[in-house]
Amino acid sequence: MKFTLSWLQDYLATKASLEDILATMLKAGLEVEEVEDPGAKLAEFTVAHVKTAEPHPDADRLRVCTVDTKDGEKQIVCGAPNARAGMTAIYAPLGTYIPGLDFALDKKPRKIRGIESQGMLCSTKEIEAGEDHDGIADLDGDWKVGTPAAEALGLTDPVIDFEVTPNRPDWLGVQGIARDLAAAGTGRFLENPIRKVEGSYPCPVQIKLEAPEACPVFAGALVRGVKNGPSPDWLKQRLKAVGITPKSLLVDITNYISFDRARPLHVYDAKKLKGAVTARLGKPGESFDALDGKTYEVNEDMCVIADDSGVIGLGGVMGGESTAVTDETTDVFIESAWFDPMRTARTGRTTGIVSDARYRFERGVDPAGCVDGLNFALALIKEYGGGELSSANVAGTAPVEGKRVSFDRHDIPRLTGLDIKPGEIKKMLKELGFGIEDAGEAWYLTVPTWRFDIEQSADLVEEVARLVGYDNLPTTSLPLPPEGRKVVVTPAQARMRTARRVMAARGFLEAVTWSFMPKAQAELFGGGGEALTIANPVASELNQMRPSILPNLAVASQRGFDRGEREMRLFEAGPVYIGDGPKDQRNVVAAIVRPVAERHWSGKIAPYDAIAAKADLFALLAELDQPPERFQVEAPRQPHWHPGQAACLKLGPKVTVAHFGALHPRALKALDVDGPVYGFELNLNALPMMKARATKTKPVFERSDLTPIRRDFAFVVDEGVPAADIVRHAKSAEKKLITGVQVFDVYQGTGIEPGQKSVAIEVTIQPAGETLKDKDIDAIADKIVASVSKGTGGVLRG
Amino acid sequence: MSEIETIEKEALGAVAAAEDLAALDAVRVAELGKKGRISGLMKTLGGMSPEERQEMGPKLNGLRNRVQEAVEARKAELEEAELEKRLETERIDMTLPPRAVPEGRLHPVMQVFEEVAAIFGDMGFTVAEGPDIEDDWHNFTALNFPEGHPARETHDTFFFNSQQGAAPKVLRTHTSPVQVRVMEAQKPPIRILVPGRVYRNDWDATHTPMFHQVEGLVIEKNIHMGHLKGCLIDFVREFFEVPTVEARFRPHFFPFTEPSAEMDVKYTKRGESIEIGAGDSWMEILGSGMVHPNVLRNCTIDPDEYQGFAFGMGIDRLAMLKYGMPDLRPYFEADAGWTRHYGFRPWLSPSVAGGLS
After folding, report:
1. Could you tell me if A292 lies within 8 Å of chain B, comparing CB atoms?
2. Among candidates A635, A798, A797, A662, which has minimal Cα distance to A724?
3. How far off is chain A from B301, nearest CA to CA, in Å?
């Protein structure tokens, strides 16, 4: 919302400086966005009179003018087609910087095609005071030579632009702004009540209200014999200053009253109206041609204005082409009505029409201002356009409830910490227009009809607090709660933090990628359900909530590779979605490596592979207090993993906590990613939480005095036997004494039958209590061989 | 020269002349071995008269001891020389590069979440979380958004398809629904901090369809707007790690707070970087306010008994301001170069005790 300082002063008697007014606006919640002093940059430019304008002897398009200027008579060569004797123009002396052209005139006169030019006559565009560049500015009005151009152009007035919050549509009128500034202590509010205008005949246009829920009140009046033409300068200048292009007196007056009093109006060419004007709901099949040149379908939810010809307007949104006023209009019918905000908003959304009227009605227009608005318009039309006024025809009644709210003034210190006297509170609220009934402890306030945001005591606390200024509230550091600080994060949150640090420490870069992805990708990775499809995605490729983070990371790795990265190691700890319920979100840690075999002077380094991914996953699990032996490694259960180089990690028969290994080449191809890509995805929610223990004390450390014994075994087994089975069976041979089993060699080739393999393990035996004799150790070894043979069919390799 | 002196001279000469340990050992055996020359002389002591023995005993013992010592000393010398020689052959070029170890980094947004949590944790807040996919009640209605509020429109909010006539689920547009979830589940006193992903249907140079917020909520019996101001000024000062912060609070409008306030802080622009705390310009940094009584009622908390404040701020922007990232868009591109440049070392864990950054 824009307004000018002088316009504000119509309603605010104040000696405050512009700076003070801006500070008060900010304090009261009118967030100033921009202040423009349009006169400041026009200081060099002044009014001049063109006495003669003769064609240049040597150039068809140039004219040689003699001009009366503040510096005396000057000869100026001018290229504008409209330069003519007798015009009032804008003069720039030699040496002036011309902002719209971004150059300065020479300080000495310059010859143009042989004729000396002693200055410049400017267009409004050249001085950045308008868009007019067809010729030099041709000023209306009787301006004396030397008058500052800013004054002649009506640009002396600072223009203030501020943000109107949706709760305060009354700030869409200058009067409403002034009321708040006065209450906030900057001057005295001048209400300037509207006088009733007497008509000389009853309004001949009938008004019918067939949908009072949509349009409960409609005031109208006719003016006959009006002369519609350009508006007076003051009116045009005010409109231009706030960014409205003047059109004609009748249209300009409606726009002016909108900005002045936040009261939208509409004017009809009365001769084009057919029969009574009716506010009703639309009917199926109806349509109308709006003022924006487009045709709109009407539906039964919309409030339309109609006459015998059909729909001639959408109430509170936009008028119609068929009854629009023109320069030829002589009889004008003025509408000042009130339209339901919710319905107006819906009509606006359905039609997509963005108009000043819609903006105002959907936020709320003071319903008590209908008749005042009409009278204001009649008075202005009469003054500047003449004509004969009818009396006002008011159909329906304005929905003015006279809302009462009880207010506990102790809520002010309770909610804000502010200590303030009752008298001060009353003064401020009265200035805002509230009626106050002081019943001792409780106050009952009558809410002004232009305020739609006051429902309860807290709303009034805000009124007082903002008028006093938030700067004047106490500033108190938050005291600790009586029970003291708590652990800031839950164990699950702490685990997420640890996981991120473990992954970064293992050389992975943390990514944060979209929670949504293309539906086709989601389907490849086990998602894609309808419940998780976004109905209105920001882009079609971001239309499905992700079931996995892996595709995002894989695609990012390819992007990095294409940019020249070598090995990419990425991880993300974040959400995936298995349904749309509040418990259907999982926190996962996903990591991928797109390996590049690095060369090193000491020899070849084995590139990252599926088992390396397992190492990263198990290292992470170990840091999360999840001992590896509690998990089982089984064949992958998700189709996006390599069937032979990936696995899932299970906790018991039902719970899958992770997948790891190589991504399936088919999935990578669909993602347009060059493989291989290795990685894992771990569902943190599936991991058991460590039980909170009663004491933090750890069990006593016991060191065995006896040296552990290590023995190697090699078993020949079928090549399909998992190494883990050999380890498990070896371990179970003597659970108490065997503390470790490590696979250190897997061999196929000479000496081993095809289809078989040799797996070598090192077994650690920790004697307990007494030293083991050779025969004891041999007995254990026999048990190991027997157990592995029985469990896997393996034979001890000779 | 006596025979003993001659032998000593010869033996010591041979020891000194030994070029390696093998040669030295040969000398030792020849002189001091079982059949050695000096050992042979020692054996003659047994056949001597007591007088002769008295004279020759000390002389021969002296001879043997001196030769023995010379052998030991020479042995140490030769061993040292041998070690030097071996080490010389073991020389490697220590300027060669070691094996490369990949360096990981933490994402700045996630790090800033932890910084914020450290500061508010010190003020007694705990971290709460909620789902990204929300229902109409938690995202809008309970937070006092009226029907027809522009935020409920598709140009702001992502919707899922409506199921069985219910209001469609949405991607939460702010972290505020977690306020509602916590207040529905827990009685005051409440002091929570809610970090999380939020979503709005907007994508241009300064907006991304997903971004991050932190929400704060304090509900107790005596918390007023002065506490809101104090708490947030303390936060900004600690977060930007500056001694003082010039801040102002302005009235604003949010459906879920009353009174509502936006917080601005003073800043100075120095070249590309921004210094928060003092300067000549104001920058809006967060929205806040006293929790609206309707919101408390919607969560079955009596607004006459309990009250408090809430605030919300964009974490991506806070991170940009503090660490000087010029552009929001690379945040979500998993760009390795960007992450290495702006990311944090894994063991830099923000805490009040150890420092934030």
Report:
1. no
2. A635
3. 15
